[in-house]
């Protein structure tokens, strides 16, 4: 009897070691491991023993079972997610995990179907259930074209319909700028008038700074240098005007300044700056100044193509082409 008891304890110890080793492998590969990974790490392990260890970890809620194009994946379960998904079946957990992996950019329903290998009707049912539990939410996407993107609820899952342009994410996540369009979009509509006002005000600020420099009666070089302004100075000026209902970042202002550069109204230079200087990045600072052309540009330069920064990538039938160029259309209308 004593020998039998010792044998059982030894088997239990072996099983525990196998389970611990599988968990260690999952920690080494946080995106998940396959049966092949386990087999390569423990070649002496019988398939039945491997299956028993995995099933036990799954039943204890310590592993997540996922599925991708190459087969099944095992991954360590997130304790916080496990409490949220308590009472959910494996299919619902699988869809939730796929959405969670997508982060705050979301995932199209087509990709959820591809990664989960579940029928579309089942996916739609699960998504509605996750929305009702406030585990995911839907937000309108400026990048979506009659597609749906799903994200986890603490990123966000709710369902918003707007010209069939929806993305889903975890409920407590802030959508990425590629989804919302940032400061230039309101309810997924491009705010062209707002951008134009910012364009005018940024140029006005740089013009006024150049006029002050000219009126200083100093040497031409000093006048030129003092006519430059940093993007931080332009940002501060726009912020104090109070013309924006949203908080604009330095990157937003630099985007506007870049459009002025493309229009030939502003020039930019880069100088070295001390570490920690306001507006500097990696020891460099961008300076901008308004410019007035000495002579009128030639006819070719007046066309959008003359100043287009993607001229070399423009060709008929491509993503950038003369037939769908809004700048060319506006120029021809003018």
What does this structure look like?
The chain is of the alpha+beta class and 334 residues long. 49% of the residues lie in helices and 13% in strands. It has 15 helices and ten strands. The chain has helices at 2-28, 35-41, 47-59, 79-84, 90-102, 109-116, 120-132, 177-180, 192-215, 220-226, 231-241, 250-262, 299-302, 304-307, 326-333; strands at residues 63-68, 71-76, 136-140, 148-149, 166-170, 185-186, 189-190, 229-230, 266-272, 284-290. Strands 3-5-4 form a three-stranded mixed sheet. Helix 1 crosses helix 3 (47-59), helix 5 packs across helix 7 and helix 9 runs antiparallel to helix 10 (220-226). The N and C termini lie far apart (99 Å). The model is unreliable at 1-13 and 145-164 (pLDDT under 50).
Give short descriptive properties of this protein.
disordered N terminus; single chain; three-stranded antiparallel β-sheet; elongated; three-stranded mixed β-sheet; alpha+beta; 10 strands
Quick recap:
49% of the residues lie in helices and 13% in strands. By secondary structure, it is an alpha+beta fold.
Helix-strand layout with pairing:
Elements: H1 2-28, H2 35-41, H3 47-59, E1 63-68, E2 71-76, H4 79-84, H5 90-102, H6 109-116, H7 120-132, E3 136-140, E4 148-149, E5 166-170, H8 177-180, E6 185-186, E7 189-190, H9 192-215, H10 220-226, E8 229-230, H11 231-241, H12 250-262, E9 266-272, E10 284-290, H13 299-302, H14 304-307, H15 326-333
Parallel strand pairs: 4-5
Antiparallel strand pairs: 1-2, 3-5, 6-7, 8-10, 9-10
